[in-house]
Write a structure and sequence with these properties.
The protein has helices at residues 19-30, 44-51, 66-69, 88-96, 109-120, 128-139, 143-147, 155-165, 170-177, 181-195, 200-209, and strands spanning 10-16, 35-41, 58-62, 78-82, 99-103, 125-126. The protein is 49% helix and 14% strand. The longest helix is centred in the C-terminal third of the chain and has 15 residues, at 181-195. The chain folds into two domains: 10-139, 3-Layer(aba) Sandwich (Rossmann fold), CATH 3.40.50.2300; 143-209, Arc Repressor Mutant, subunit A, CATH 1.10.10. By secondary structure, the protein is of the alpha/beta class. Strand 4 (78-82), helix 4 (88-96) and strand 5 (99-103) form a beta-alpha-beta unit.
């Protein structure tokens, strides 16, 4: 839900080591009556110190130094980051540390405005290269990792899966476990569904990769 109610200006502080970039950010903030420039700094550390004692809504930082941003939380302010960092692991760490918008340092003023509004309203905004970097990492994960997010298989299903790995047919599995063949079929169907497999062989392969079947 948007926090904007029209009752006051959005309090913003900026930081950029480049005086030119810092002036550009200041210009964007000052050109909008809905914004209030609470502070402008040439070092992230200075902004961090300021934020700990000042109530802010949004912090805009222009930097390629990830270390500057992986600090203890400074306030409840949303962080907008302008950076050329697009490595997925770094982006993930930044998002966990409180960054809510990540744009290229060459972004247009309108993009910066969109990021400020989005982060202030509790949304996350990423540039296309940043989003593609994260998507590429996710798309490379094996299907069983995604399946692991669903319901875990039970201990009895694990027993059935391991017997499938041994090459046992339904009748043999039923005899070993003291259950009916119908129940065995039910367990196998559940295993295939939970592991995202379409065949018994595929289920066994996924089970081995997930450590469910000792090798």
């Amino acid at each position: 839900m948007s926090k904007r109610t029209g009752g006051g200006a959005i309090r913003i502080a900026v930081a950029a080591t480049s005086a030119v970039r810092r002036a550009g950010l200041e210009s964007i903030i000052r050109s909008h009556a809905e914004f209030h420039l609470a502070g402008s700094f040439g070092a992230v550390a200075s902004l961090v110190s300021f934020a700990r004692s000042t109530e802010l809504d949004v912090i805009v930082i222009d930097t390629d130094s990830i270390r500057d941003l992986l600090l203890e939380p400074t306030s409840d302010a949303a962080i907008v980051l302008l950076t050329e960092v697009t490595e997925a692991r770094s982006i993930s760490r930044l998002l966990r540390s409180g960054v809510r918008a990540i744009l290229s340092r060459e972004s247009d003023p309108d993009d910066v405005l969109s990021a400020i509004y989005a982060s202030y309203d509790g949304l996350v905004l990423l540039s296309i290269p940043t989003a593609e970097s994260l998507a590429a990492v996710y798309s490379e994960q094996p299907l069983e990792v995604e399946a692991g997010l669903s319901e875990e298989i039970t201990s009895r299903e694990t027993d059935v899966l391991r017997m499938l790995a041994q090459g046992l047919v339904n009748k043999d599995i039923a005899a070993r476990l003291g259950i009916s063949e119908h129940t065995v079929k039910f367990h196998i169907s559940s295993i295939l569904d939970k592991l995202g497999a379409s065949t018994r062989t595929e289920a066994v392969t996924v089970g081995i990769r997930r450590g469910l079947i000792p090798i």
